[in-house]
Automatic annotation (TrEMBL), chain A:
Keyword Cytoplasm: no
Organism: Streptomyces thermodiastaticus
Ranges annotated as biased composition (Low complexity): 12-24
Source taxon at top rank: Bacteria
Protein keywords: Membrane, Transmembrane, Transmembrane helix
Designated name of the protein: ABC transporter permease
TrEMBL record, chain B:
A GO term for molecular function: ATP binding
Protein name per Swiss-Prot or TrEMBL: ABC-2 type transport system ATP-binding protein
Entry annotated with the keyword Ion transport: no
Family per record: Belongs to the ABC transporter superfamily.
Compositionally biased tracts (Pro residues): 315-326, 335-352, 377-392
Location of the region described as Disordered in the Swiss-Prot/TrEMBL record: 303-402
Keywords: ATP-binding, Nucleotide-binding, Transport
CDD domains: ABC_BcrA_bacitracin_resist (cd03268)
Amino acid sequence: MSTPQPPMPHSAAPQWPAAPGAAPSAPAPAYPTYTSPIPVVRTHLGHALASEWTKIKSVRSTLWTLGVLVALVIGIGLLTGMVIAGSDPDLGGESPLSLGFFGLLLGSMCLITLGVLTTASEYGTGMIRTTMVACPSRGRVLAAKALVFFLVAFVVTVVCASVVGLVHVSLLEEYNAAEPSAEEWLKGTVGVSLYLALLGTLSLAVGSIVRHSAGAITVMIALVLAPLVIAMFMFSPSLEDVQEALFEYSIPNQMSVFYSTSLSQSGPSGWDPLWIMLVVTGAALALAFTLLRKRDV
Amino acid sequence: MIEAVGLTKRYGDKTAVYNLSFQVRPGAVTGFLGPNGSGKSTTMRMILGLDNPTAGHVTICGHPYDKLPNAPRQVGALLDAKAVHGGRSARNHLLSLAQLSGIPARRVDEVLGVVGLHEVAGRRSKGFSLGMGQRLGIAAALLGDPQVLLFDEPVNGLDPEGILWVRNLMKSLAAEGRTVFVSSHLMSEMALTADHLIVIGRGQLMADMSVKDFISHNSADFARVRTPDSEPQQREKLSAAITEAGGHVLPEQDGALRVTGLPLPRISDLAHDHDVRLWELSPHQASLEEAYMRMTQGAVDYRSTTDQKEGLQQPLPPGAQPPMPVPGQGQPGWYAPPPPQQGGQPFAPPQTAPAGPYGAPVAPASPPAAPVANPYAQPPQAPQSAPQPAPSAEPTESEDAR
C-alpha cells in the first residue's frame, strides 16, 4: 500500500497552527503520533467551490435538467418564431423578444428541479454526511453550492435566452416588429436569466430546508403555480384585491414583466421582480444557513 | 487522540448516549463494541460533529471537530458505505472530497489503488457491491492521510480477502502511530484486530480495557465434567464434593457438568477421592464473543424470541417429543454460564438464586434444562410424556424492564 513512510523527525512537517498566546512549550505528547507528509493547507471557500463544481458536473441529473432546459427554451422559441413568421402577421410594433417567454416559463421547472437536487439529493443519498465530515464549516458548503448553481443556471439561461431573442428578432423584423432597445435586450436576456437563476437558488435553499427532493420540488412548483390557480377561482367580489395581488405577484406574471407584457397595469414593473426574488431568496438562504448550523446532519 | 467527556445525546425522550467518557489513544486499534442500538453510531457521529451532543463534549487532538483546521487532514472516517451519491463515479466522488480539503488530485488515484478500486474508478458507485462500497468509504477515510481514523463496521460486506486486508490495514495504520477507532459486531474480527476495547450498552460505558483484560474479567472459562451416564448418583456425589470444595456446578442439558472456580487437577483429585469415574474432563476457554455476550446480555435492546407459529402448528401426536431448540435461539440466558470466581466479577449478575437441586447455586439465567413446550401445540389430553414447561426460562421482559 502506498501509505507514506513512517513519521520522520523532520521539523518541516506541517504543524498545528499555534493558537495566538499559547505557550510554545506545550508538553510533548507521551504517545507516538503520525504526521502526514502531504502538506496541510488552510481551506477556504475556493476549495468548496472547486468541490461543488466537480459535484455538479459529475452527475447526470445536471445534464438532464439543463439539457431539457435548453431544448425547451430554444425549441419552443424557434417553434413560436416560425409559426408566427409563417402566418404573415402584423406585430404592430410589439417587441419580438417577448416570444421567448413561453420557453423560459417551462424551462424554469428544470432550474427548480436542478436547484432542489443540488442540496436535497445529498440528503437522499446520505452524501451530506460524507460532505459535512469533509468540511465541518457547514455554511461554507451551502454557500459554495448556491454560488456554483447560480452561476451555472445563469450562464445556461442567458445563452439560451439570447439565442432565442436573436432568432426572433431576425425572423420577425420584416413583420412590423419593433427593434428592441438596449434596455429591452438587457431585461429580456440578462434580467430574466438572473430572475430564473435566483428562482433556482431559492429552490436550492428550499431543498436544504426540506431535505427531501420530491417534497422540495413539490413546494417550489406549488409556489410557481398556486397563486395563479387560486386567483382563478376567486369569484367573490370582496376578494378582488387579493385576486389581483395574486395575479400580479405570481411568478409567471413577474417573469413577463421583463418583457413589458404584464397581465395587469399595476403591480411590479421594471426591475421590481428581480429585487423581490432577491429578497425572497436571501431570506430562504438565511433560514437554510440557520437550520443547517442547528440541525443534526 | 479522541477524548469524550460526559457525552450525552437525547432524541426526544429517548436517550441514545448517556454520560459517556473515554479516551482513544494513538498507536493502537481500539474496538468499539455494543449491541445494536446501543449508541455506537451516535457516538461516532458526535465525534465527527454531525450530531450536537445534548451535554458533554468530545475533542480530537484537543479540539472539537468543527474547530479543527482542515478536519479531513486530521480525521478520516468511514461512517456509512452508502453515504455517497450513487450517480457519481468513484473517482469524481473522491475528487470532490479531495478538493474540499485542498488535497492534491493525484492522491485520489493513490487511495483508489490502496483500496483496489482503480479499475472501476470511472464507474458510477450506484452499481457497486456492498464490499466495493466499503472499499470506497475506506478510500475516502484514507484520502487525507489523517492521524485519527474512525471506522463504523468496516468489514460489512467484504469477502474474506477483504476482511484480512482491512485487519492488516488497521494494524499497520495503528503501527504508524495513528489513532484507529473501529466499531464492529464481529467479535472474532475484533479479537484479532483490536488492542483495546470500549464497550457500551444502552448508551453507557460498560468497559474500557485491553482485549486481554476484557476476556479475563468477563471470562466464562469452565471445565466440562462428564460422569458415566448410567450412574446418575455418581454425578450427584461429584457435584456435592465440588460444591463443598468451593467450586460451582451447573448441569448442562446433556448431563455434563460445568464446573467453575476449581482448577482441572483439583476436580480430578476430588473425583478420585470420592471414587467417581470421569468420562470427560475438558477445559473450555471463553472467546471474546462469549465474554462480550456475557457482559452485554442485560443491555440488548433487540432480542429474538422463539418463533411460536401461533395457531399454525399441528397438535403433536400424544407421546411425541417437541423438537429440541437450537441452543441460543430465543433463550435469553444461553450465554450466561455461572460466574467463574466470586468477587472480581464486575459485571456478573447478583447471585440471589436459591440452591439448586445439586446443591449449587443456580444462576438466575441458567440454560433451560427442558425445552419450553409450545403452549399452542399441546395435545388436548394431559400429556404424561411431554415435558412440563420449564418453570422459569427467564422471560425476556424481566431483563428488558428497567
